[in-house]
Structure formats: structure tokens, C-alpha cells
Specification:
Strand content: 5-15%
Radius of gyration: 26 Å
Distance between the termini: 53 Å
Largest sheet: 4 strands, parallel
Number of domains: 3
Bound molecules: zinc ion
Strand order of the largest sheet: 3-2-1-13
Structural class: alpha/beta
CATH architecture of the largest domain: 3-Layer(aba) Sandwich
């Protein structure tokens, strides 16, 4: 039976290029998950977009002397190109700077306001006398009162993940001029989060299928007490407050950006020709999975669910499989220190599947993990080239050389062949189970285990010898190997979509692996059917690039 799945992917700030940490933390896991469910025949909607508002974009624009529109348009175009080249398959990747998003975010505001969940109050805000302006969240920084980390922003500490208020910060300074701001009273709107505390705790405690780090963090956060939060700011860039007399204020980005999942679904529905289609994913029987890095957890397990509870009639998240961090060569990735592997730069020089593979094998699902170029080269050469690529290459070469490029006739199967075919089916099922539980590393490992088993089988059966002494046995071995490769291409397709499609064509099949679906018929390749001559799936990499890439990172 077909299931409905919403894959909601965290919105990147459109103020800089994507690096491998973003890919491993958010986009690749979401894509693997979505591809699998589509292959399975489930009804998937995968949406996200550029977060065009918020102070990261305006700060970046001010630094470069351009408009915020210039900044977000540039990165929106770049992200779309990244997704295409890396095979990240969004149904819609939009931006928050659309009329549709403004309308949906304002509707959320008005409904919550009408129901008493948003109220007006005076608050003190940092005001810089030098720059003569209020300083919204990221325009101030100081020391985190919880963990004493130095570079905490006005809205959140990146080190301990706590959300913050500027007045909590120690040694607060203006990020524009470096002077300490004064605090002035100004009127703002607040989200009455405190009323949802008990309801959210009860809900989160029941989510036994959540990752323990996500669930424990959320419970701890809620048990610490939920405070009302200001949702408007004195800035000019963003979604206007839809009430008369507040034209100078904008919705705070954390309030409007999370509405993006809903507004993007509505935009997708409108462009699909059925304007009501979004309701299937938000009001009907549908499981919503939210993919993100761990710094985004409270916005998706507390704030967004509170808004949804207040709004009423929209589905809460089913799962929030947030990832820990990916480090690079043992150190935390840093945009400001340029300690990163940038996605466009990588894709200009290397193929997409090896990156997808190495990151998938090393996803920071339960703890921080590390990317190193040494590991990249090792996994590429030992696992992709020597194990997987070589299996496909030698089997297809022997079929071409010894059986006129046609699928050989297996005759009667022996025990060892039957066992391998049974293992293939079992492993395909395991990969599916693991992906459904969002244990993507384990899914990949189960799939690659089949490539290893097939290589052992080939070494044991040695068809290159048998072809001279017992051609029927060589035919049997190669038929079984082709069938297993046909299974492998499906099992690994969510992870290695480009390579899977190449194998599909080399096996002489029409269409794509994705379209062929999540199933395997061991008898699909019938004797006599032609196969193609193999071309290499992966390129062996020179170890010298390890040093060259290390130089490139440290600049
Ligand atoms: Zn902190
Ligand atoms: Zn200042």
C-alpha cells in the first residue's frame, strides 16, 4: 500500500555557499530517504528553499555593499545548481522571498494573534548609539551565559545550542562597530510559547522512534521551562507584520522561516495544477520527516510544533532525524575561517557519487563524524573502485568476452549460487528497513556487504578458469553475478544514483533504476538478452591529491 511522506528539509541561509557539512547533515540524508520512498512507490513531497530573510543575509549584503536581493538571488541560483549536479532531488526548492510565502507566514501570524497566542508587549532591545539603530539578533554578540562560549550571537549559541536573548549575553557588543549597545524599550509581538509547555512535553515523551539525542535534548529544553519569545524585529528586510501601525517591523526570521515548509508545499501544489494537493501532506494521513543539523533541533521539535498546535488542523512532525556535526580533518567546519570543502568547488573537480558515498558511510547520525581526504581516497579506491566497480566490470567483461555479450544460460543452480541470491534479497530488504528507520549508514553498509559477498562468490567459483574447463559452470556463475549486480544497483541507488543508472543501462535495461522501483526479480535478465560493454563506474584516485587538497583547505 502506498504511503504518503513529507520530506521537509531545513532551509539554508542564502548568504554563502554550501559545504560538505551541510550536505552530510541535511541534504544528502533527506535525498537518500526521499529517493528510497519514491522507488518504493510511496507518495513523496520533498521541499525546502533559501532562507532569504534574516540578519545573516543583510549582514552579508552590507559587508559586500550590495542589496539583500543580490545576495540571496546569487546563492539561490548556486544552490539549485548544486542540487542538480549532486543529485539532490527536491520537488520544490523555493525561497522565503515570494508573495506566496509572505501570505502564508502572515496568515500564520494573524491566526495565532486572533487566538491569543500572539500578544503585544514592550521589550528592551539593544540600540547602538554609533550606528543609530536597533540591533536585531545577529547584529550583537557576546559570551554565552550557559557555556561561556565567546562568539555567541543574540539569538543562539552555536556551541551549546541554547536559544538566547541579547540581554542574557555577557560583554555584549554591536557587530557593526564593536561598541557596547544600550538597551531601549520598544514594542513587539510575542509568541505565547509558555502555554504549550505541558502539551509539548507529553507529545515528545511519546516519540519513542525519535533519535535519543533529539528526544533527550528536547525534553531537557522543555523541562528547563518554555518562555514566550519576541517574533518581530525593528528591521526593514523580511516579511512585514500584517497589522496596521507596525509597518516598520518585520517577522523574526525563526518565526517565518519554519512556515516555509508549509508555504513551499502550497507553492508546489499551485504549480502542479491542483492547488489543494498540499493538504494531502499536511492534513491527511501523512508522515512528516524533518531533516536538519542539530543546531536546528529546538525550532523543529518545540517552536514549529507549538505554532502548529496553536494554528490547529495541521500535522505535527512525525520524526526529526537531526544529525550531529561533520568535522573536517579533525576540526570543526568553519565558514568564516574557510575551513571547509565547498560543494561547487568539489563538483567542478570530482564526480558526485564518491562524495555521496563517503559522506553516507560516515554520516554524523548519532555522534560527530569526520571527513578527511585520506579517508575519501581510501574509500573511493578500496570500496568503490576495487569492490563495487570492479565486480561490475569483471562480470560484464567476461560476459562480453566469452558469451558474445549476451546473458548466459544458468542451467541448474548449485547451493552456493542459491545462497547468494537469497542473501541478495535479504540484504535488499535490510537496506529498505534501515532507510525507513533513517539509519542510513547501516543501510549503506548492508548494501555494500552484498558487493563483498558477490566478490567472494566470484573468487570461489573462478569463472575465468571454469570457462575453459566447465563452460556451463562459468555460465551459471556469470548469470548469478549479473542478477546480483541487478539487485545491487537497486539497493545502492538512493546512495549512488548516477552509478546505479549507468549499471542499469550496461545491463541492457531501459529507463532508469529509480523508475524500475524498489524490487528485484532475480530472473529479470533472461538468457540470450544482450548486455553492454562495461565502462568504468569509478575513477581510481592518486594519493597525491590528499596533500594537494589539504593545502587547498588551509589556503
Ligand atoms: Zn552556549
Ligand atoms: Zn554599532
Amino acid at each position: 500500500m502506498s504511503e504518503r511522506i513529507l520530506v521537509a528539509v531545513a532551509w539554508p541561509y542564502a548568504n554563502g555557499s554550501a559545504h560538505i557539512g551541510h550536505i552530510a547533515g541535511t541534504y544528502l540524508p533527506a535525498d537518500i530517504f526521499a529517493r528510497y520512498h519514491r522507488m518504493k512507490g510511496n507518495d513523496v513531497l520533498m521541499v525546502s528553499g533559501s532562507d532569504a530573510h534574516g540578519t545573516p543575509v543583510t549582514i552579508s549584503a552590507e559587508e559586500r555593499g550590495v542589496t539583500p536581493e543580490d545576495v540571496f538571488s546569487q546563492y539561490q541560483a548556486e544552490f539549485l545548481d548544486d542540487w542538480k549536479r549532486l543529485g539532490i532531488t527536491f520537488d520544490l526548492f523555493t525561497t522565503t522571498h515570494t508573495d506566496n510565502h509572505t501570505r502564508v507566514a502572515q496568515d500564520m501570524f494573524l491566526r495565532l494573534h486572533e487566538k491569543g497566542y500572539i500578544y503585544k508587549d514592550a521589550m528592551v532591545q539593544p540600540f547602538c548609539l554609533t550606528d543609530n539603530r536597533y540591533l536585531a539578533d545577529r547584529y550583537v554578540e557576546g559570551t554565552c551565559p550557559h557555556c561561556k562560549h565567546g562568539g555567541a550571537r543574540g539569538d543562539q549559541c552555536d556551541n551549546c545550542g541554547r536559544t538566547l536573548d541579547p540581554k542574557d549575553l555577557i560583554d555584549l557588543v554591536c557587530k557593526i562597530c564593536g561598541n557596547p549597545p544600550e538597551f531601549r524599550e520598544t514594542e513587539h509581538f510575542f509568541l505565547r510559547l509558555s502555554v504549550f509547555e505541558e502539551q509539548l512535553l507529553e507529545w515528545v515523551r511519546k516519540q519513542d522512534h525519535w533519535r535519543s539525542n533529539v528526544r533527550n535534548f528536547t525534553i531537557g529544553f522543555l523541562e528547563g521551562g518554555l518562555h514566550d519569545r519576541a517574533i518581530t524585529r525593528d528591521i526593514s528586510w523580511g516579511v512585514p507584520v500584517p497589522l496596521e501601525g507596525y509597518e516598520g517591523k518585520r517577522l523574526y526570521v525563526w518565526f517565518e522561516a519554519v512556515v516555509g515548509y508549509l508555504s513551499a508545499s502550497i507553492e508546489w501544489a499551485e504549480s502542479s495544477g491542483n492547488a489543494d494537493a498540499w493538504k494531502d501532506y499536511w492534513q491527511g494521513d501523512c508522515r512528516a520527516y524533518y531533516f536538519m543539523g542539530k543546531d536546528n533541533i529546538p525550532f523543529h521539535t518545540i517552536i514549529w510544533p507549538a505554532m502548529l498546535l496553536g494554528y490547529e488542523g495541521l500535522n505535527l512532525p512525525y520524526d526529526v532525524p537531526a544529525n550531529e556535526y561533520l568535522n573536517l580533518e579533525g576540526f570543526k567546519l568553519s565558514t568564516s575561517r574557510n575551513w571547509a570543502v565547498w560543494v561547487p568547488d568539489y563538483l567542478d573537480r570530482y564526480d558526485p557519487d564518491p562524495l555521496r558515498y563517503v559522506l553516507s558511510a560516515n554520516l554524523p547520525e548519532t555522534s560527530d563524524s569526520d571527513f578527511s581526504w585520506r579517508e575519501y581516497v581510501r574509500r573511493n579506491n578500496d570500496e568503490l573502485v576495487a569492490t563495487f566497480g570492479n565486480l561490475v566490470h569483471r562480470v560484464l567483461s567476461m560476459v562480453n568476452r566469452n558469451f558474445d555479450g549476451k546473458v548466459p544460460d544458468p542451467g541448474e543452480l548449485d547451493d552456493v549460487s542459491r545462497e547468494l541470491l537469497d542473501e541478495a534479497q535479504a540484504r535488499l530488504d535490510t537496506v529498505g528497513t534501515e532507510i525507513e528507520a533513517v539509519r542510513l549508514r547501516q543501510g549503506l553498509s548492508a548494501g555494500m556487504g552484498l558487493a563483498q559477498a558477490a566478490n567472494r562468490y566470484l573468487d570461489q567459483k573462478a569463472p575465468w578458469k571454469a570457462v575453459k574447463e566447465d563452460k556451463a559452470d562459468a555460465a551459471r556463475t556469470l548469470w548469478v553475478s549479473l542478477a546480483v549486480i541487478n539487485c545491487l544497483k537497486t539497493a545502492l541507488c538512493p546512495y549512488l544514483p548516477f552509478s546505479s543508472d549507468k549499471i542499469h543501462l550496461m545491463l541492457g535495461l531501459e529507463g532508469s533504476t529509480q523508475d524500475a522501483g524498489w524490487n528485484w526479480d532475480r530472473n529479470q535478465l533472461a538468457p540470450g538478452q544482450p548486455v553492454e560493454k562495461p565502462t568504468p563506474l569509478f575513477v581510481k584516485l592518486d594519493e597525491e591529491l590528499i596533500e594537494a587538497e589539504a593545502q587547498r583547505i588551509s589556503g
